[in-house]
Design a protein that fits this description.
The chain is mainly α and 115 residues long. 36% of the residues lie in helices and 0% in strands.
Length: 115
């Protein structure tokens, strides 16, 4: 007769359940139904921290909100005040004779040399 492999598996699971029940930690059933009590003073623990945070926030608000002088338009520099002469006469290029090392690879019509 052929043994059913599921019977062997069932026996192994049954042995494992018995082993788990024998090695399970002890527990008290009355603790499952007891009401949960908060430790005393747990809610008052955050009061000093929240007060300190509020004081820091208030001090930062008072320091950052200083009423200053209103800006007036007469203090601004003139926008379109230019001197006589060429527009970019005083601007010299930083590298007047710079050529990239790969310029020889470009076709001659793409090599632009600005004055």
């Amino acid at each position: 007769m052929i043994d059913d492999p599921e019977d062997d598996l069932r026996d192994r699971f049954a042995r494992q359940r018995r082993c788990d029940q024998e090695n399970a930690p002890a527990w008290r059933a009355e603790l499952l139904h007891a009401p949960v009590r908060r430790p005393r003073g747990a809610s008052w623990r955050w009061v000093p921290l929240s007060l300190a945070t509020a004081c820091v926030a208030l001090a930062a608000l008072l320091i950052s909100h200083r009423p200053g002088a209103e800006p007036s338009l007469s203090n601004l520099p003139p926008l379109f005040d230019s001197r006589d002469g060429e527009l970019f006469a005083g601007l010299d290029p930083a590298f007047p004779a710079f050529e990239a090392p790969s310029d020889f690879l470009l076709p001659t019509h793409l090599n632009l040399h600005l004055p």
